[in-house]
Amino acid sequence: MADGEEREPTSPLSPVAPYPRPPIQRSRAPEFYGFVGWISTSLLFFLYIFWAILPEEWLEWLGITWYPSREWAILVPAYSVVLILLTYFTYWALAIYSTPPFNDLRTVTGPHSKAHFPDKMNPDPYLSAASPDAIPEMYDIPIGLVNRVLYGERPKGK
Amino acid sequence: MSSREWEKVLWKKHPYPDNYIPHTFLSSLRKNTNFKPYTYWPLVLAACSITQHLSTVFIFLATFIRIYDGSWDPRYLVWSSVAIFLLGYVIWEVLEYKTLGYLVKHADRAKTFKSSILVFLALMALSPVLRTLTAATSSDSIWALAACLFILNVLLADYGSLRPYGHTRDRLTSVLSMNAAISSSVVLASRLRDDLSVFALILFSVQLFALYPLVRTRLQVTDAFTYASITIFLPALSIYLHSSPTNIITLILGIVLVFITFVAPALLLWAQSYKNEIRGPWDVAVPQINTADH
Amino acid sequence: MDPLRIAMICDFFHPNVGGVENHIYMLSAELIRRGHKVVVITHSHPPDRVGVRWILPGLKVYYIPFPTIASSATLPNFFTFLPYLRSILLRERITLVHGHASLSSLAHEGILHAHHMGVRTVFTDHSLFGFDDAASILTNKLLEGALCNVDGVICVSHTGRENTVLRAGYRFESKSAEVSSKRKFDPTIWHVIPNALVTEKFKPTLDRVADNTVTVVVLSRLAYRKGIDLLVATAPRICELFPNVRFVIGGDGPKLIDLLQMREKYLLQDQIILRGPVRHSDVRSVLAEGSIFLNTSLTESFGIAILEAACAGLYVVSTRVGGVPEVLPADMISFAHPEEDDVIRAMSEAIKIVSEGRHDPLSAHERVKSFYNWRDVAERTEHVYAGVMNSVPMTLYERIQRNLELGPYFGLIFVVILVVDCFFFQILEWTMPREDIDYVEFDWEQEKFEKVAREETMQAQEESSQRDSRDSDGGVRGF
Asked: Any keyword Phosphoprotein (chain A) (predicted)?
């Protein structure tokens, strides 16, 4: 089906739509926005470099009598690196904060897990899922059943 | 079965492996479908509106400096503002006649003059308030604020020409742009010493930033020659007004204006050769709906 | 082939619902049936879906407690997942990582980290993306970085593969045939394996009342990308042309208001029925009401909804976008351009076909059944796995080389990420030594599960019969 899209009409019997489909005119404004963005970022980059490294006399010769203190040229990038590191630590902290302790019931099940268990046990979904050509159903397996399968028989006399 | 040719379908069982790349791979890829190369002079003409706008900003700044250091009498500025307004109004009427084909109605004209007198009087009454508006703020903050507002104004301004069928509803950004320029001139005016200077400067800024863009969008569609000559006049005026204080500013201004008018269009032309727009069947289709019956 | 130990990694998994979620689940279930061991790694769902859960049929799911930032995806950050991933891969003795979905940052990270532990990687891409909006540019860059480290890629349609190859940053000189790219392009790792569906769940109804009403079913999220504007424009015209047509529209979304307004404006309350949100388990019952399925999507990588409808015996009308033309043979589906007039044309054609009885739901069902099933998908995926396991792994130097090819700036950034990742891994090796890891000793055995399940059931039946008799006793005593 080389170029199939262009050659094969979708409507062999009643061609209402013009065929082949005329190309859609898209706005060209993004081209200009992109161009202005490109020019202004490169300009800003050079301004930043000049501000950061030109000697003071040169700047004065250029007629610039006031400019923000030059230590910011180092401080702002330094702060942003720290900010990125802080994002990592915050993210880890949030992950650790939302980790339940081992003795919390949420690590096994929870009150909202009811929806993940089958609502009627007859016919038993676990039994039917164990058969070789069952259609898989997304149900949680209760922890007792899991433990019996993984670690063997429940000790007698409970 | 094995002689079957490869087809771009998923439902059929192929003898080919799943990682078979057919010779038609990427045949539906389209590059630069509706690409029309730009030409230089129309781009320069389109860039003229940016040059003009920048020039008006610099003319305003030069005027402010003159009034601030007292080398210009604000009364002259008031009179010249009124003169510019009348001249601009005449040009406006001529342009309306040229583009729409009929004269402006008498009632409309009376309404325009009534409202302009109203604005004139309101500004006059407000100028003592505006003069003391930022008395508690230091001048350095005002300069920084004014610079930021003017940068905002330049970035958001509407540089397009008049839409052919009177699509006059302004976009939000162009309204924001005008507001930024007017606020900037208000905070600058509040640095001046007497009420008359404040009044003169704000009157002038209304001419430049609220009324002139209206004339400019109309000028842009009428005649390329007039438009170009105005584009020569305004930057020249702005450079002339800035030439006295320090030469370096004149130089920078000149470089910026030449860059925007002549170099930037050339750069855009050059950048076109790198254009690589890829389209294919995976793009979000644009639904075409008949608008006639809606 | 030898049983593998596979980790599926994706941000999108049960209890969320959706195409990707279902794909991962069905594929895992089928792979388990084929004797592999599969675990799924995803992020947690507060409040209580966290930690480890077992899902039928013996699928172990790790819910990592990462917060999500937008539409159930975690923050793309390249490193935070490594400690968790390392512990899981080691303790489960994973040999292959399979990441899903290009918006899932967990999958990207999994592919980035897996090579430290000598684990091979496969990635499945489920969706189509453009190239010209800011969000696509950003996500495509991330995908580019991930895909230069991957050993195998699976896409769900041929169009999807073309799209993913381009998004992975390969640019070709000639349009077709000899794919000569500026970057080294290895065509052998790019596979196409379609989605599938459980055909037993979508059986056509036979007891349909024989009248001349033709019911058109629309089931989709009511959003711009699903082409609801087209539906709003065409539905009143179709209702006018064919008074015996009835629309049943299921779904919810921002465009619902447009549909309601249209219905109000043309007074079509008895011809257009809005069902609101439909749960996936109720899809079949909604499909069973109709005989034509209309899909007006503006972009679609595979179109599982179309397949479900076709399987349920409906004749399908769809816009010709993305991977849709590949899904069904031409006599089961009518295509339309995404244009108002053309959709009406295709719909008229479909209504004619259906009302003349030229579309047989039962044979359609049988055909779809022969086209797609999960067993095939799993088998073909196994082939991909086998190819990946037999290939020679990239050395770190090779990885750095490939990353550098990504571009003068972006490539460098990615190399830095790669190298930092190596250091981070070494720190983890030192702080959390391998011998301290709690390895999994007991694996899930299907035979054992079967036995235990049978015992449990018998026990439960016994108990319930005892309880019943007790209850009846109690009832008597109570009187």
From this structure: no
User: Is B50 within 8 Å of B260 (Cβ atoms)?
Assistant: yes
Residue whose C-alpha is closest to residue C113's, from C134, C88, C140, C139: C88
Taking the Cβ of residue A23 and every Cβ of chain B, the question of whether any pair is shorter than 8 Å is answered with yes
Please answer yes or no on whether C341 and A140 come within 8 Å at the CB atom: no
Min Cα–Cα distance to chain B from C156, Å: 9
Shortest CB distance from C225 goes to which of B21, B284, B294? B284
Window 35-74 of A: residues touching C by CB (8 A cutoff) are: none
Q: Residue C172 forms beta bridges with which residues? A: C181
Could you tell me the maximum CA-CA distance found in chain C, to the nearest angstrom?
90
Q: Does residue A1 carry a pLDDT above 60?
A: no
Average pLDDT over residues C452-467: 79
Quick one: pLDDT band at residue C477, thresholds 50, 70, 90? very low
In a domain, B2, yes or no: no
Q: Which CATH superfamily is domain C5-196+374-436 in?
A: Glycogen Phosphorylase B; (3.40.50.2000)
| Residue C27 to chain A, least CA–CA distance (Å) | 10
pLDDT in tens, C110-138: 999 999 999 999 999 999 998 888 888 88
How far is residue B159's CA from residue B256's CA, in Å, rounded to a whole number? 17
Q: Give the type of residue at A76.
A: V
Q: C183 is written with which tokens?
A: 């970057």
CA of B186: how far to CAs of B81, B128, B139, C46, C116, in Å?
A: 16, 12, 13, 53, 63
Which of A96, A116, A125 lies nearest to residue C15, judging by beta carbons? Answer: A116
Range of the domain at B159: 47-269
The answer to whether C431 faces chain A, any CB pair under 8 Å, is no
- Rounded distance between C-alpha atoms, residue A147 and residue C442, angstroms: 10
Domain layout of chain C by residue ranges: 5-196+374-436, 199-371
C306-325 residues touching A, CB cutoff 8 A: 320, 325
User: C428: part of which helix (H) or strand (E)?
Assistant: helix C410-431
- DSSP structure class, residue B259: I
Most distant CA atoms of chain A, gap in Å: 95
Q: What is the average pLDDT score of chain A?
A: 78
**B279 to chain C, closest Cα gap in Å:** 8
| CATH of range C199-371; options 2.60.40.10, 3.40.50.300, 3.40.630.30, 3.40.50.2000 | 3.40.50.2000
For residue C48, give both structure tokens.
Answer: 């209580």
What is the amino acid identity at position C472?
Answer: S
ipTM of the complex: 0.82
Residue B111 is assigned to a structural domain of this protein: yes
Q: What is the dihedral of CA A106, A112, A115, A116, to 10 degrees?
A: -20
Q: Which of C107, C180, C93 is nearest to C150 (CA)?
A: C107
pLDDT tens, residue by residue, B206-222: 989 988 888 888 888 77
Q: How many CA atoms lie within 13 A of B283 on its CB side?
A: 19
Residue in C77, C331, C342, C421 to test binding to A, most A beta-carbons within 10 Å: C342
- Rounded to whole angstroms, the Cα distance separating B102 from B108 reads 13
- C360 three-class SS: coil
Chains in contact with C, counting 3 or more C-beta pairs less than 8 Å apart as contact? A, B
Chain B: give the shortest CA distance to residue A54, in Å: 17
Assess whether the previous peptide bond of C3 is cis (omega < 30° from 0): no
Of B19, B21, B29, the CB nearest to C175: B29
How many domains, in total, are found in chain B?
1
Residue B195 lies in a domain: yes
B33 touches chain C (CB under 8 A): no
Q: C153 vs chain B: nearest CA distance in angstroms?
A: 9
Q: Which residue has the tokens 């921002």?
A: C254
- Is B98 among the domain residues? yes
Whole-prediction pTM:
0.85
Residue C333 CA from chain centroid, whole number: 22
User: Is the model's pLDDT at A17 over the cut of 50?
Assistant: no
